[in-house]
């Protein structure tokens, strides 16, 4: 793991993050922040994707800078394991839980226990549903992630001017992740008018979220679905012109499928997370774009929220209407995602220190 990507508070960070850096410096200087002896439990979903490893590392380092004792666990995409890991953290009397949920509806029981012990609960990047016991949500503008992906396809195919029709296939994330529908709806809002008009054609006919979802966000599952689509709907010599893919691991699975069936020039293919492997694919012309979300800034925002709550104050939020979890609207701080392609990857992900140039060699 590149050390520059870990706990570096440079680049595109928000005001909350800047405040956090200031307070981290104060505690390093011996100024003290009153967090001595506080414990935080961090529950991450999986190590199969690079971003969650960075999130975990950034959170752990940032909380430790604030003087917190940290327990960090990964649940390998198994929801029941995540529940039992969180139960153990509750048993350890943590003051705060920071959770990126595997299954957004599996945590009501364990969070009720947490609330019984006055533990502050932050939903990290993925909203937790059907419970009153989540205090705040720190994430990105998830609808905008989809908007950026959809808009990229529209512009790359020049749909405003080109006569078309172009063939497109659609992929979404895991149905157990609340973000999935925000990503897809954001993209679909941009793409659907062109499908209605007939300029974009979904030859598989698969446009419903349940049909296009990808279990566990697994690239191999997406690869298999793409294999099926190609052999069932593109066996007449027609080609796929664009693929809406929600996450880099899924994009790479789709690219493997296309390569396996003889594509040498890739369709327009979207992605998300600016994973090193996919940025390399972008440089090599295999993947068209990704959506960069600065996990350093998200960690800093989260730490800032926690420090404010445990100091008895109110954290800064910038959205108090979008994220209804079925029981309440969870106050959120949402960061901005950024569209990245071959033209701006250097400036956005390398110059900001998120990816070291040597990792792309
Ligand atoms: C995150 C994405 C990520 C996906 C798969 C989503 O909840 O917001 O950044 O690509 O999970 O891990």
Automatic annotation (TrEMBL):
Its main location: other. It comes from the Bacteria. Keywords: Signal. It is found in: Cell envelope. It comes from Glycomyces niveus. Gene3D superfamilies: 3.40.50.2300. Residues 40-313 form the Periplasmic binding protein domain. The keyword Signal applies. InterPro entries: Bact_Solute-Bind_Prot2 (IPR050555), ChvE-like (IPR049784), Peripla_BP_I (IPR028082), SBP_2_dom (IPR025997), TAT_signal (IPR006311). PROSITE patterns: PROKAR_LIPOPROTEIN, TAT. Residues 1-26 form the signal peptide. This is Sugar-binding protein. SUPFAM superfamilies: Periplasmic binding protein-like I (SSF53822).
């Amino acid at each position: 793991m590149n050390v520059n990507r870990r706990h570096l508070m440079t680049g595109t960070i928000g005001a909350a993050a800047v405040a956090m850096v200031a307070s981290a410096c104060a505690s390093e200087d011996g100024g003290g922040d009153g967090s001595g002896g506080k414990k935080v439990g961090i529950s991450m979903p999986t190590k199969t994707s690079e971003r969650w490893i960075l999130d975990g590392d950034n959170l752990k380092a940032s909380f430790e800078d604030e003087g917190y004792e940290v327990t960090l666990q990964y649940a390998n995409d198994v929801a029941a394991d995540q529940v039992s890991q969180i139960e153990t953290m509750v048993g350890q009397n943590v003051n705060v839980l920071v959770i990126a949920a595997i299954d957004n509806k599996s945590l009501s029981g364990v969070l009720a226990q947490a609330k019984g012990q006055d533990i502050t609960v932050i939903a990290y990047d993925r909203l937790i549903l059907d419970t009153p016991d989540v205090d705040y949500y720190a994430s990105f503008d998830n609808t905008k992630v989809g908007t950026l992906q959809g808009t990229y396809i529209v512009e790359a195919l020049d749909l405003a001017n080109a006569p078309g029709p172009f063939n497109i296939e659609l992929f979404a994330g895991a149905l157990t992740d609340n973000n999935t529908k925000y990503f897809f709806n954001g993209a679909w809002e941009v793409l659907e008018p062109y499908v209605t008009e007939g300029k974009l054609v979904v030859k598989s006919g698969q446009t419903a979220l349940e049909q296009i979802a990808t279990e566990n966000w697994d690239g191999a599952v997406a690869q298999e679905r793409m294999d099926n689509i190609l052999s069932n709907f593109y066996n007449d010599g027609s080609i796929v012109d664009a693929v809406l893919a929600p996450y880099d691991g899924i994009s790479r699975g789709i690219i493997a499928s296309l390569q396996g069936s003889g594509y040498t020039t890739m369709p327009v293919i979207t992605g998300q997370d600016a994973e090193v492997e996919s940025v390399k694919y972008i440089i090599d012309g295999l993947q068209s774009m990704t959506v960069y979300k600065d996990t350093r800034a998200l960690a800093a925002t989260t730490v800032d929220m926690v420090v404010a709550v445990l100091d008895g104050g109110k954290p800064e939020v910038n959205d108090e209407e979008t994220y209804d979890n079925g029981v309440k609207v969870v106050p959120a701080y949402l960061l901005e995602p950024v569209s990245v392609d071959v033209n701006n990857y250097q400036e956005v992900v390398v110059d900001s220190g998120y990816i070291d140039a040597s990792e792309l060699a």
